[in-house]
Write a structure and sequence with these properties.
alpha/beta, Arc Repressor Mutant, subunit A, D-Maltodextrin-Binding Protein, domain 2, 11 strands, globular
Length: about 300
């Protein structure tokens, strides 16, 4: 490889394609044309004299060399952000109010105990955390930035994948002691089940119970992930819980561990907010705290 031919700016184009998995969505995220994005990727591949991305009609897949470069670029990006944070003064012009809308499981159980770090870094910033289990209208300013389950497929929105996460079946030790443990899905019908209020499920991605079993019949329905979590811990029955909330709780039993659901959290903001620094620093902070490895969002993570 000729170092003189390497343009470090091409790395951000490569990172966008690697993260988005599609040229079009990566181009939209960067605010450039697909033609320019393709040229920059081609320039990077030429500099490395290696194919980094396999393009197809279904999307883009990283080659083995691409996977290695992706890990390196993410590490460099992280270290650069850390250096920027150290060099800049905390009060460097970030002020105003940012409203963050999140699903209640992520917002209450994960984000609420960590959001103070953002205020410490930017003392002139005011943060409003709105963890409610419904969709958000970013265009109507119900939230400035939202954490959503799954990537939105319409609207003038910018989206960035935060993390994959998993869900599994759990019950309390007391419940299992009194009622036993089902050995398969068929035996679940003999147990008390905890789930969402079906007609209040605003996204098919949240219909966890139906995905596990078409015969799922909840004895207790709660339209809140945190509410279900507390109900299951109290011994109300078996429920589908977020693994990052439940897997390390000693009073919970992992039921039928071979059954596992996978979803992803995305941070999303309206196109009109793309140049607003306070929104940008919140998005970067969300990226940072979900990648700090202190929380396992998936059982395999």
């Amino acid at each position: 490889m000729k170092w003189d031919n390497l343009n470090w700016d091409d790395a951000k184009y490569f990172l966008a394609v690697a993260r988005e998995g599609q040229m079009l969505s990566a181009a939209n995220r960067l605010g450039v044309s697909q033609a320019k994005l393709s040229r920059r990727i081609a320039s990077l591949e030429q500099a490395f004299d290696a194919q980094l991305i396999i393009r197809s009609t279904s999307g883009c897949e990283l080659t083995e060399d691409g996977v290695g470069l992706f890990a390196t670029c993410e590490r460099i990006e992280h270290e650069f952000r850390e250096a920027t944070s150290r060099i800049r003064k905390p009060e460097s012009g970030v002020s105003g109010t940012v409203r963050i809308g999140t699903p209640d499981g992520f917002g209450i159980s994960f984000l609420a105990p960590r959001i103070h770090g953002l205020i410490e870094q930017y003392p002139d910033l005011r943060v409003q955390l709105v963890p409610i289990p419904r969709s958000f209208s970013l265009s109507q300013r119900e939230a400035d930035i939202a954490v959503m389950v799954g990537r939105p497929d319409n609207g003038r929105l910018r989206a960035r994948k935060l993390t994959d996460y998993s869900l599994s079946l759990y019950a309390s030790h007391d419940y299992v002691k009194e009622n036993g443990t089902p050995s398969n899905l068929d035996e679940m019908k003999f147990h008390k089940l905890v789930g969402y209020v079906e007609d209040l499920i605003f996204s098919p991605a949240l219909n966890f119970n139906a995905e596990i079993s078409r015969d799922w019949n909840s004895a207790l329905e709660i339209s809140s992930a945190v509410g279900q979590f507390e109900a299951v811990r109290s011994g109300a029955g078996i429920g589908v819980l977020h693994d990052f909330m439940a897997s390390d709780k000693s009073d919970l039993v992992h039921i039928l561990p071979e059954i596992n659901l996978n979803r992803a959290y995305w941070s999303v903001w309206h196109e009109s907010m793309k140049n607003t620094r306070r929104v940008r620093v919140v998005a970067e902070y969300l990226d940072k705290i979900v990648k700090d490895k202190t929380v396992r969002f998936t059982l395999s993570g």
